[in-house]
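ESCALATION

Customer reports they have been waiting on this structure for their group meeting. Please prioritize. Original submission:
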Amino acid sequence: MTAKFLAFAPERGTSLRLSWTNVVFFGTFHALALLVAPWLFSWSALGLLLFLHWLFGSIGICLGYHRLLSHRSFQVPKWLEYAIALIGALALQGGPIFWVGGHRQHHAHTEDTNLDPYSAKRGFWWSHMLWIFYPRAEFFDYEVYQKYAPDLARQPFYRWLDKYFVLLQIPLGLLLYALGGWSFVIYGIFLRAVLLWHSTWFVNSATHKWGYRSFNATDDSRNLWWVSIVTYGEGWHNNHHTYPHVAKSGFSWWEIDVTWWSIKALKSLGLAKKVIMPPSSSASQG
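Update from on-call: job pushed to the front of the queue and completed.
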C-alpha cells in the first residue's frame, strides 16, 4: 500500500479519473531520485539510505503499520505503539488510518476487482501503482476508509497523524540537511522514498503473480524470496494470507523474516506481548 495525498477522488459509480496531483508528486520524487542522486553520491549518504529504508520500511511499515496496527498480531505499550506509528508515517506511505483501513479492505476482499483497493486481478501495474494515480473515493475518502480502522480513528493521535503525515518530511529534511547537506536530503528522503515505495508495492503486485504456494489460500497470493529481501519478510505472502494475524511471515527455515527478528527482540525485552504464532500444523500443504 501507499499514500493518501491530496488526490482527486471521484464519486462512487463514476469513471476513474487520473489524479494529476499524485502524478506530479510521485513524478517529482522519481525525477529527483533518478537525475539528482547520482551527482550527490557518497558512501555516507548510501549508508543513510540503507538505514532509513530499514527503519521506515521494516520497523515503521512492516512491523508497525502492518503487523501491529493492521492485524494486531502482538501488543506493545501505548507509548511504543505511537512511536512506531510515527516511524511508519515518516515512510511517506500514507497516514495510519488510511494504510490500515485500506489493508483491511484488501484482506476482506482480496483480489475482488471492485472491493480490493489494489486488486491483482486488474493487472500487475494496477496493483503496483496505478491504483494510486486513479484514486477511488471508496479507498481515498477518509469518511469511508476510517470505518475499516475504527480502533485507530477513535484516537486523536492517529487522526492527527493521518492528516499531517506529509508535513513530517519537513523536520526530517532539516535534520538530514544539518547532518550531511543536500546529499543526505536527496538520499534520505527522495531516493529512499522511491525505493521503499516500489519495495512495498511489489507485495501488492509481484507476490500475487510469481512465487510458490505453501498453502491453498483462496486467493493467488504467493511466497517470493526476492520481495522478502527488499521488504524485510513481507514477501512470504501466501503464508501471510493464510494466517494474516500471525506475527511472523516466514514459516520455514529458509524463509528469512527480518521484521520478525525485531518482534522477537521486543518480546525478549518484555515489550511485545500476546505475540500470535503460526499453528503447529502450518507445515507446507503443497
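Sent to customer with the following note: Residues 1-13 have pLDDT under 50 and may be disordered.
Escalation resolved.
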